[in-house]
Amino acid sequence: MSTENHDDVSRRFVLKQAAIGGIGLVAGTVVTGSGSERASAAIEHVTEKATWLAERASCVSGNRLLGADSAGPVVTKAREIFLPRSAEEIADLVRSLPAETPVGSVCGGHESSNAATVASDGAVILDMAHLKSIEFHEEEGRALVTVGGGVVFRELVEAVKERKGALPVGTGPGVGVVGYVVNGGLSGYFSRRLGLLGQRVTRLTVVTAAGEIRVLTPDDELFTAMLGAGSALGIVVDLTLEMEPESVVRGAEQRVISFETRHQAVAFAREALRFQAERVLPDEGVAMELVVTGTKALVATFVFYDTFRGSMAELVAALEALAQRLKLPVVASSHLSSWYETAAALWPVINAMKGSPLAMLQHCMGTEGPPTDAILDFICDTVVAGSPLDEATFSIVEIRTLGGSAMAKKPLPSGNCRHRFFVDLITMYDAKEKTPAERQEIADMTRSVIEKARGVEGLAVDFSGTHSQPDDPGSAVSPALIFGSEAMAEMVRAEKKRVDPENRFRFHPYAKFL
Ligand SMILES: Cc1cc2nc3c(=O)[nH]c(=O)nc-3n(C[C@H](O)[C@H](O)[C@H](O)COP(=O)(O)OP(=O)(O)OC[C@H]3O[C@@H](n4cnc5c(N)ncnc54)[C@H](O)[C@@H]3O)c2cc1C
To answer: Does residue 422 surpass a pLDDT of 60?
Structure first.
């Protein structure tokens, strides 16, 4: 099935133009000619910037809603917002702008600090919303899919389902595929078996800061750097992913357990996490996630892969027995029978989280090896017990297993490749229901948990581009943690210097240190 929108031109257009014009299209080489003056005049642009931001940014950074900023609505500072339809339009536009003009790219609009959607005075934003092509093809027996720069997960997952394929996608239906891949996105459900989505990229079409269209393959220096730090290095027009058959995921079991007091949630988490460390982490055939929600639910999910050899029923029964022992009711049980059902499981929940605006702060912490008892105690006694789950009721603490294929495959510049166990603290609330003092209290509680986490031996904090809040004032984000190692951070820095010396691409989660 192809879900290509025929107005989109994307890669196919570039290939066609190259053929017509007799311009060679070789991996990693420049395919456009000289600059074009028609660029900005011909490209669709946004006239109502306030409406655009309200529609395109899925949330507003909790930090932007504090102090003086809490008085009025968050606005985009960009000079102009364009909606290009092809690689050529993007390249023409970039070349037609003065070399020092900052350029931001927006795909799904889910990045939590709004770096690219708010941008800065004088900046130009490229909203990729028209680049919606999804094309399936085969190459040397590999099932590939080429995805346009504006495709979001709901669109990709629906299309891949028709092809009976599987990919390590993120949970949010509106999260941009490219925005996720270029910032080191990971799937708590699937990465243990399928790796990070970036580890499945075989080709990238990008427009550089100089306005050149380049097709990158793993042989190109820039290729690997793009798959973790890409939002600082180029504009992705499309990317090609290698799929696996849907049979790699046997299915999932989910149990929702309700609690009344935080003390009960902590007690359940304490035993469930020991169980996760002892029974699940050593077995790469299964992933386990425990989510503690502000709506007073504990959601335990096991995802079983084709490599699982144990008894599914036994694992689930152990968690049910724990709930029974603690006298906590299991209020819902779901059996998800395929990759697709598992990938789409949280869409209704996420779609129901709305706000005016929806405020968000995202942080993560994790361990490279199995977590120690002291770390598990910290997660329970401080993270589960002290996060603002009652004050910001859309908030969740997600405690997940990783490692497996994400660790075994070729490393990318993403801290997510190195972590076997990790926790996301996602603070979320409807801002219209909160006074400035309440917003501050929620941000302070979040920050207090994260600051304490920084002092816990063996716990890495904010190591992920997709799950760190880069606009926290004074936060000590480390390039080596975010990109996975000092060597990766150095490689990214060197690429940045080489391909974007004017720092045109400055609206990304690493702006503090690149
Ligand atoms: C509900 C929800 C669920 C989530 N689930 C997960 C999850 O399961 N796993 C996970 O790892 N993360 C998850 N995230 C985090 C999310 O993956 C990241 O915030 C991601 O960067 C968002 O990408 P986007 O395209 O939606 O956002 P955008 O704000 O559009 O883009 C994010 C960044 O990517 C850059 N970018 C966008 N398009 C391009 C392009 N074409 N070329 C170059 N740079 C580009 C932007 O400039 C910006 O810096 C979730 C977030 C939310 C809100």
So the answer is: yes
User: What is the pLDDT at residue 39?
Assistant: 65
* 95/80 Cα distance (integer angstroms): 15
pLDDT digits (tens, 9 = 90+) for 79-93: 999 999 999 999 999
What is the residue with the minimal CA distance to atom 23 of ligand 1?
179
User: Does ligand 1 come within 6 angstroms of the Cβ of 466?
Assistant: yes
Residue nearest to atom 50 of ligand 1 (CA): 172
| Residue in this structure with the two tokens 């996760």, named with its chain if needed | 276
**Residue of the nearest CA to atom 49 in ligand 1?**
508
Q: Is the CB of 236 under 6 A from ligand 1?
A: yes
Cα of 424 to ligand 1 centre, how many Å? Answer: 15
C-alpha 176 – ligand 1 centre gap (Å): 5
Residue 185 near ligand 1, beta carbon < 6 Å: yes
What would the CATH number be for the domain defined by 131-245?
3.30.465.10
Index of the ligand 1 atom closest to the CA of residue 233:
43
**143/2: higher pLDDT:** 143
Query: What pLDDT is stored for residue 71 in this prediction?
Result: 76
CA nearest neighbour of 325 among 270, 397, 288: 270
**Tens digits of residue pLDDT in 17-38:** 333 232 222 233 333 334 444 5
> Contact at 8 Å (CB) between 2 and 135?
yes
Q: What is the mean pLDDT of residues 249-262?
A: 98
Domain boundaries, the chain: 35-129, 131-245
Contact present, 193 and 305 (Cβ < 8 Å): yes
Considering the chain, what percentage of its residues have pLDDT values greater than 90?
Answer: 88
Nearest to 371 by CA among 396, 346, 400: 400
* Band of residue 477 on the pLDDT scale cut at 50, 70, 90: confident
Q: Probe ligand 1: pick from 52, 53, 56, 106, max atoms within 8 Å of CB?
A: 106
Give the whole-number percent of the chain exceeding pLDDT 70.
Answer: 92
- Nearest one of 381, 362, 200, 192 to 289, comparing CA atoms: 192
Element (H, E) at 321: helix 312-325
Residue range 35-129, CATH number:
3.30.43.10
Taking the centre of ligand 1 as the mean of its atom positions, its distance from the CA of residue 108, in whole angstroms, is: 6
Burial call 288-301: b when 16+ CB within 10 Å, e when fewer? bbbbbbbebbbbbb
pLDDT per residue as tens digits for the range 294-315: 999 999 999 999 999 999 999 9
The per-residue b/e assignment along 319-339, b for 16 or more CB within 10 angstroms, e otherwise, is beebbeebebeeeeeeebebb
CA of 446 to the centre of ligand 1 (A): 21
